Amino acid sequence: MKGRELDALSDEDLAAIENFPVVFARVSPENKLKIVNALQARGEVCAMTGDGVNDAPAIKHANIGVCRFFVCLL
């Protein structure tokens, strides 16, 4: 699923998708947070990666957060 498709969905609509997407492409930091919220609403454990400060909200909110940058302050 692409970021622009995520933009068209609410958090609730994304969480309600029966066959939840397993690959996301071209997503914004806001999209990443939406994915985390949707997965957690489904009772899933969620891991999120990011490479900058703009990804910090999604990384911090995820059950497992991985920063792929030399210095990432959360």
Outline the structure in words.
With 74 residues, the protein is α+β, with helices and mostly antiparallel strands. The protein has 4 helices and 2 strands. It has a two-stranded parallel sheet. The mean pLDDT is 91.
Question: Brief description of this entry?
Answer:
39% of the residues lie in helices and 11% in strands. With 74 residues, the chain is of the alpha+beta class. The chain is globular, with a radius of gyration of 12 Å.
Q: What percentage of residues falls in helices of 4 or more residues? A: 25-40%
In DSSP terms, counting alpha (H) and pi (I) runs of 4 or more, how many helices? Answer: 4
Total DSSP E strands: 2
Q: What structural class results from the helix and strand content?
A: alpha+beta
Secondary-structure element order, as H and E? HHHEHE
What's the alpha carbon Rg, rounded to whole Å? 12 Å
Uncertain residue segments: none
Strand coverage percent:
5-15%
- How does the major sheet shape up? 2 strands, parallel
In one word, what is the shape?
globular
N-end to C-end Cα span: 27 Å
Mean pLDDT: 91
Strand order of the largest sheet: 1-2
Chart the SSEs and their pairings:
Layout (H helix, E strand, L loop, with lengths): L2 H5 L3 H5 L13 H13 L5 E4 L5 H6 L2 E4 L7
Parallel strand pairs: 1-2
List descriptors:
74 residues, alpha+beta, two-stranded parallel ribbon, globular
